[in-house]
Fold:
Amino acid sequence: MSNAWDHAAGMADKHASSGGIFIRMTGNGDRVIGAFCGEPFPREVVWTGDRYETYDPDLHTDKRSSLRVMINFYVPAERDMKVIEGGVAWFKDVLKVRDKYGLDKWLFEVERHGEAGDPKTTYTILPEEKLTAEFRDEIAGAGPHDLGALVSGDGGGGEDPPIDAEAAVELVTRLKALPRADVNTFLEQFKVQRVRDLRQSDMEAARQLLGGLDARLRRQAARVDLPAKARRWGG
Structure:
């Protein structure tokens, strides 16, 4: 009975991790076979406790940044172009197989070694089989994702540029006064990971959202302070 439950749980995890753009390998022994495509996209990030955010020196003054590298990765089993991402050690292994085998010549198996949350997790990257003409045609048909646009949330239009430096300073100053959860709410609302990536057309909505978050914070502070005042005046 327990084996059946364990098997079902494993299948559920596998399907929950599939279907999105990003490849998710969350458990020891998880693996994926595919082809590395195009150029890498490196970025400095910080870990918020539940996800990575692009490092913003104005906002993340209390956090240390680390490197993450994204690469397009075609998965034949799903006949779809995905995005795979890893840290420094992982990317150094990608460079090793690139130099030894050539990334444009092979399908590779990437396997995780380490349970979820294990800081000592490593990955192996091994050649699986040579790319055939059929695979090359599939990859060409799928096309790569715009990795920069995925990170910034920019759909690619040039008619709505990012906010200027003065506006960014205004927003960052107000965000620093808010709890981290409210900062996450703000970034998720506008689908950006850095304040400076906010579009000019969203500036007024951003000010309104910050006004609401500021007001809620003041109400919460007033509720906390009320019992103390009552005690002080004998209420």
